[in-house]
Amino acid sequence: MLIFIVCGFLACKKDSPEVKAEFRVKKTSFYLLEQVEFMNVSAQGVYLWDFGDKQTSTDVSPVHTYTKPGTYNVSLTLNGQVTEVKTIVVYASISSYVVVNNTGFDGLEVTAYYSDINGRIADSVKLGTLAALAKSDTVFTAATLIKLGGVQMGKRTSTEYPLLRNTNNVLSMQ
Length: 174
Description:
Elements: H1 2-12, E1 23-25, E2 29-31, E3 35-40, E4 47-50, E5 56-57, E6 63-65, E7 70-78, E8 82-91, E9 95-101, E10 108-115, E11 121-130, E12 139-141, E13 145-152, E14 155-162, E15 168-173
Parallel strand pairs: 2-8, 9-15
Antiparallel strand pairs: 1-3, 3-6, 4-5, 4-7, 7-8, 9-12, 10-11, 10-13, 13-14
């Protein structure tokens, strides 16, 4: 009889499911003034978002715009106790680009630069030597027009590319 009582007691014990705050964001790097969409995938409850810039929200899945560049720790608190934190970076730029070597040749040395209104080089980024079909690292910029210069088999090339705002532009060296 004692065995039945102990087993019966254990069978009546219910484990409550773990409630945790959980959210997703499509990417972790953003441009200045780009809208950041946070998708809440937590259980129902009371939500408190802290965007890391002294702004908060109680929306289920808020949209937030950062007005200053920086690294932000975004937290979602569920029912006042369970929290998830993710880090996002906001760049002081309006667009970005990667360069793809579509010339068909290995060893293309690439430098990206942009000029001021007088035609003088204002800034440049050495993207290194790219193998055929290889991509450079992503470069974040405030420029709206990029010139790519390359040296391949002793021959210099230069091409201008307009950059679309709030977009990771793919620039193809032909």
